[in-house]
Amino acid sequence: MNKKTLGKAAAGLALVAAAVISYRTFGWGHMRGSVHDLHLDLSAPDALIVTQSLSTLPRDLLTIPLARDVLREDLLFYYEQNEDRLGLKGSLRRIAYEHELGWGDQLIRMVLDEPADVAVWRDADGSLQHYAIAVSRGKLTRLLEEAGKVALKDSQMRIAGTIKVDGDKVDVFALDYAQRRTLLLAAHGERLVILSHPGMLYHGKDGGDIDSTAEKTVIGLLGKDTAQRHQFHKQFQLPEQAATGHTVAVKADVLAFGYQPFFSALQAVRFDFSKGTWRSQALIDGAKLGKGGYDSRGLWAALPLNPSACFTVPVDWAATEPVLKALGADGADALAGQMQGPAAACWYGGSRLHTPVFVATRANAPDAAFGSLFTAAVGGKQPVAKPATQGGALRWQQPVDTAQGAAMPTLALSGNLVVFSADPKLVDQVLAVKRKQAAATADRLPDAARTVGVIAPASLAQLIQRETFNTLPAKQEPMLRGAADAHLVPRLNALKKYPPYRLMLKQLPKSGTAWEPLEWQVIGQ
User: What is the DSSP-derived secondary structure letter of residue 22?
Assistant: First the structure.
């Protein structure tokens, strides 16, 4: 997990939702030339916002003390003065003025001030960038009739194509704005759908081909069938009619950067705002928890005290077998079959962001299989050292060169405990806890079995600050270093005021898949 990932973890909901509403889109070259296919499945978004008013979401985010102190009022300023929003507003005003129309800013207010579903997809770099907004609002018929007339004679607005909704022909409009960026808009009856990028619906040379799956999705969003209007809700196990406030749901695969198949029991996380309070939940599939379930007490008992950030996930060890075989590890089936329970990934202030320690447990997997895995995965210019027994633990080490400098990946076995890190000092610390020579994180957790995460904002902030300045030497990067001093340091200082927290999963679903409440508790209280 990289520095950007840890920044998101530190800010939690605040950064997830800020990314979702940031309106980052790409241009389509005025629909001339080759369209870059986005390779999105419009029927399966990565995140979903269900809100009574999108315009109030940033301010409601700032009711979270952490978000208020870290993001401050700058979030509201960015939201109101965002380049894309200002460009879109200016384009709509210009079109309304030149063509003597009455709607002006009405379209923006309609989208931001009304109940809406906002589905979001990842771009090729993994960031949440492409969105579809679906709203219900009266008076749309007149507005779109005017838009159809404008599209015939305006340089920034044109008809991109047509679709059929409930037997009616519906025009899809392309609106150019803000440095060659383009939105698609389609309306039918009281429904309006906005797509942030033409490639979400059209593809091929000159955007002449419509994607059949995307077309079916847009038709459902615009149609009379209520279930199809809210078709994304089902994927996130949300009711068709959302409660008042906001719901932000993000699939676990987004947060796990594509590794979610290895812990498929955890499917999504969700944040709800209602009556002035935010609550969080996790979508858990109880049938996929596997051997050992999600009981993390054995991991916390092995992890050293005071991590900067530490999380446990319910690993599907059987899903790792094809990867282990692809690496060329002997006994891959034995490894996958004999590992059990969840695994932990932890960062400590005395180490680096790119060298977390990973801890898991085994049943009867043979030692030789781990040695084979280590050799296959680490490689290196020198032969992998033979396992050495130190303090009752079996250990493999291999020096390697990385982009961050020299490292010493280390794998150790101690009883049923499996430990790996690119920082051998962290492996030593875990083994010291195992030998009862150092305090464990579990010593400060009243219910380690249901604790799934620990964050120490002060320690994490120091780690992020040190890593940031290591990559921005003042002499080589004076401008970026100055920006970090001016903008990043005050936010990290705000983080340092917060005590350590633990994330509690109070219960597991008795059967099937269900949203289960998550609780944030101050450690030591």
Answer: S
Give the closest residue to 72 by CA, choosing from 16, 11, 118. 11
> pLDDT tens-digit profile of 383-425?
677 788 877 899 999 888 877 778 899 999 999 999 999 999 9
Q: Which residues contact 437 (CB under 8 A, 6 or more apart)?
A: none
User: In whole angstroms, what is the distance from residue 63 CA to residue 56 CA?
Assistant: 11
Q: How many CA atoms lie within 13 A of 287 on its CB side?
A: 4
Distance CA 23, CA 177 (A): 13
- Residue 70 vs residue 286, higher pLDDT: 286
How far is it, in rounded angstroms, from Cα 453 to Cα 345? 10
Q: Is 211 helix (H, G, I), strand (E, B) or coil?
A: coil
Containing 470, the helix (H) or strand (E) segment is: helix 457-471
H or E, element range at 133:
strand 128-136
Separation CA 501–CA 292 (nearest Å): 25
State how far Cα 278 lies from the chain centre. 18
- pLDDT tens for 14-60 read 222 222 332 222 233 333 333 346 778 999 999 998 988 877 777 77
Cβ proximity of 265 and 289 under 8 Å: yes
475: left (phi over 0), alpha (psi -120 to 50) or beta: alpha
CA distance 174 to 201: 11
What pLDDT does 71 receive?
58
In whole angstroms, give the CA distance from residue 47 to residue 22.
14
Helix, strand, or coil (residue 320): helix
pLDDT in tens, 176-189: 876 667 889 888 88
pLDDT over threshold 60, residue 88: no
Q: 192, 183 in Cβ contact below 8 A?
A: no
Q: How far is CA 310 from CA 258, 344, 345, 455, in A?
A: 19, 7, 6, 6
- The alpha carbon of 398 is separated from its chain's Cα centroid by a whole number of angstroms, namely 33
CA distance 504 to 200: 38
- Whole-number pLDDT of residue 108: 57
Q: Considering the entire predicted model, what is its pTM?
A: 0.78
Q: How far is CA 115 from CA 52, 133, 134, in A?
A: 4, 10, 9
Residue 380 has pLDDT above 90, yes or no: no
The three-state secondary structure class of 257 is coil
